Amino acid sequence: MADYTFVTRWELEAPIQLVWDAIYDAEAWPSWWRGVVRVDKLAPGDAHGIGSVRRMAWKSALPYTLEFESRTVRVEAPRLLEATVVGELVGTGLWQLTPRDASTVVQYDWNVSTTRAWMNLLAPIARPVFAWNHDYVMRHGGEGLARLLGARLVRA
User: Which domains does the chain show, CATH number per domain?
Assistant: First the structure.
């Protein structure tokens, strides 16, 4: 498997609670995040969402769709949300939200490995393309979140 570590940062002129609510509600992502094809809740988890499982499908600028299941493993509202993923990607994703004056800084750490044979074979030469593709999808996420909240995206 090929390993990838991506760090995305957004800063939105919006209160942390509004940003948290939008990120926490993953089933709504397809309505505002270009590239999220589908999010299906498979299990609700506990009262905080820990243990919830979602099947996600993502489409990007490249001609393929990635599907995986995401299990929420840590929730510290409104600042931290962590999940593990299995499927065509395996690994972890960690959302960290920090208030800054009238803005919220969002950092997303995505540490995954690919399980598709063709991706693993191409990894030595395609790694920069996969990184560009990840940035493309995440840029659309920041822009979509800003539109959803009626906020200005200060930094992406």
Answer: 3-155 (3.30.530.20)
